[in-house]
């Protein structure tokens, strides 16, 4: 087999591979010898079929299998022999001429194919001793814990039927039918729906018109859906709701005690407070982690400047750009609404894609040199988390991970990255700084990190595009007809 480099330009490589027809014929003959004693052909005793006849019957199919095996296996071996790593799966090109293909399958012509790929750039790691970051830490007060416990208690509070009119804080149980232009619309009908007045769970104006209703009342409520309402067929439209009030109930007093805790499945009020404090610590810890990681990545970005494989950058950009356009479509906005243009947004997201690819390569090299590994247990836990998000589809998801090697890699990559960050935190200069909750929650765009200032849309698409560098939760949309009961939906 001849391996001839035909292009070496930057990271681009092209390799021409030539396997002489005689070598292909020898491989075919070896396969024919293997099957000679196994095949059954009418007119011949087992093991007595002439090789020439076997070649006539099976030669082309065996050669086709050989070609497929070579194309599947040789690229990896060739790159390994050259000491190269391909950024993506090498592209394989071979003749499309039918006559030439027939000659190759008949072992009358050399088998030639071309590999095209980009190599991963060599990265010379630099010392990280000069990296200095500030880790923001929030002290959680008893007052904040008590506030959150109170919200939990309010979400679990009980209600007692009352005969009077509904007031703020009361729970109204009702049936309703929503209509637009006199026609009932999908999702606008419910029976036994519960709504706590003042909770803000329905679209603006709905709850206000329920104030003063009594059990047995029938009322038509007129509201206008917000212009940015998720259901495009309802956005900005006026709607009426024919409401029948079934019950009005007043809230019972809220008490934070062991009885409340037991109602929530806990042994005591102290245990409830302990769990709530842990949840707050986890939330703040996640924000702190995001900011710490962003600082590390920004400084690594300044330290490393090298050519990145265009194929990886293009793939990363396509993913980001798809997310940006999906977000714009869902919000009903345009690039102009976000104070930018499509051309400018494309340019900035291409820069972001290149940054993410470069940092990914740097983190991969750091992790490899440090011996960072993702264990089988960590992979299993991550896959289990994926399964939890799609109840009832566990079998299909597991099959997807088994059949798609890239799927498992997409699970492994973020785990590996976080472990590399953990490794870096043991080697760099970290200074803890006490901050207030407001300071921790402050928008990072105002903190001087130009890398985080992306155009269109700043709050949503850019945050998702830089998911590995920090996350931002999307605010839930208000619904016209929520199905949750008040006791399930009012707690934060």
From TrEMBL:
Signal peptide: none annotated. One of its GO terms (cellular component) is cytoplasm. It is found in: Cytoplasm. Residues 435-492 are annotated as: Disordered. Its EC number is 5.2.1.8. One of its GO terms (biological process) is cell division. It is an enzyme of class 5 (isomerase). GO terms for molecular function: peptidyl-prolyl cis-trans isomerase activity; protein folding chaperone; ribosome binding. It catalyses: [protein]-peptidylproline (omega=180) = [protein]-peptidylproline (omega=0). Residues 169-270 form the PPIase FKBP-type domain. Pfam families: FKBP_C, Trigger_C, Trigger_N. Keywords: Cell cycle, Cell division, Chaperone, Cytoplasm, Isomerase, Rotamase. Its main location: cytoplasm. Belongs to the FKBP-type PPIase family. Tig subfamily. Consists of 3 domains; the N-terminus binds the ribosome, the middle domain has PPIase activity, while the C-terminus has intrinsic chaperone activity on its own. Involved in protein export. Acts as a chaperone by maintaining the newly synthesized protein in an open conformation. Functions as a peptidyl-prolyl cis-trans isomerase. This is Trigger factor. It comes from Rhizobium sullae (Rhizobium hedysari).
């Amino acid at each position: 087999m001849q391996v001839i480099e035909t292009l070496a330009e930057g990271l681009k490589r092209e390799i021409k591979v030539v396997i002489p027809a005689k070598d292909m014929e020898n491989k075919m003959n070896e396969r024919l010898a293997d099957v000679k004693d196994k095949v059954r052909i009418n007119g011949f005793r087992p093991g007595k079929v002439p090789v020439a006849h076997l070649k006539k019957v099976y030669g082309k199919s065996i050669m086709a299998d050989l070609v497929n095996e070579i194309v599947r296996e040789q690229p990896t071996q060739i790159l390994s022999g050259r000491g190269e790593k391909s950024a993506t799966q090498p592209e394989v090109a071979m003749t499309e001429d039918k006559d030439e293909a027939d000659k190759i399958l008949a072992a009358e012509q050399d088998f030639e194919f071309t590999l095209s790929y980009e190599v991963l750039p060599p990265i010379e790691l630099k010392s990280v001793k000069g990296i200095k970051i500030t880790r923001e830490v929030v002290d959680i007060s008893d007052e904040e814990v008590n506030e959150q416990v109170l919200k939990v208690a309010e979400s679990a509070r009980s209600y007692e039927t009352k005969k009077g009119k509904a007031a703020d804080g009361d729970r109204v149980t009702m049936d309703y039918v929503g209509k637009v232009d006199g026609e009932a619309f999908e999702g606008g009908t419910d029976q036994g729906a519960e709504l706590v007045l003042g909770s803000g769970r329905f679209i603006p104006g709905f709850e206000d018109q329920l104030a003063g209703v009594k059990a047995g009342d029938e009322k038509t409520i007129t509201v206008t859906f917000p212009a940015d309402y998720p259901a495009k067929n309802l956005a900005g439209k006026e709607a009426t709701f024919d409401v029948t009030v079934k019950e009005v109930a007043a809230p019972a007093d809220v008490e934070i005690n062991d009885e409340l805790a037991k109602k929530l499945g806990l042994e005591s009020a102290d245990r409830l407070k302990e769990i709530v404090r842990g949840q707050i610590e986890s939330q703040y810890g996640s924000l702190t982690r995001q900011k710490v990681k962003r600082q590390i990545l920004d400084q690594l970005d300044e330290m490393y400047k090298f050519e990145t494989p265009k194929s990886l950058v293009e793939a990363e950009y396509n993913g980001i750009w798809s997310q940006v356009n999906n977000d714009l479509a869902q919000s009903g906005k345009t690039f102009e609404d976000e104070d930018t243009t499509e051309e400018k947004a494309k340019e900035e997201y291409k820069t972001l894609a290149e940054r993410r690819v470069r940092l990914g390569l740097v983190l991969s090299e750091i992790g490899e040199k440090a011996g960072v590994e993702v264990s089988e247990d960590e992979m299993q836990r991550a896959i289990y988390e994926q399964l939890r998000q799609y109840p009832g589809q566990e079998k299909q998801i597991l099959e997807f991970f088994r059949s798609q090697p890239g799927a498992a890699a997409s699970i492994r990559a973020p785990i590996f990255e976080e472990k590399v960050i953990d490794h870096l935190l043991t080697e760099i200069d970290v200074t803890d700084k006490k901050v207030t909750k407001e300071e921790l929650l402050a928008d990072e765009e105002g903190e001087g990190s130009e890398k985080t200032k992306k155009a269109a849309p700043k709050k949503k698409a850019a945050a998702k595009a830089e998911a590995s560098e920090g996350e931002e939760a999307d605010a839930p949309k208000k619904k016209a007809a929520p199905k949750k009961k008040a006791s399930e939906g009012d707690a934060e």
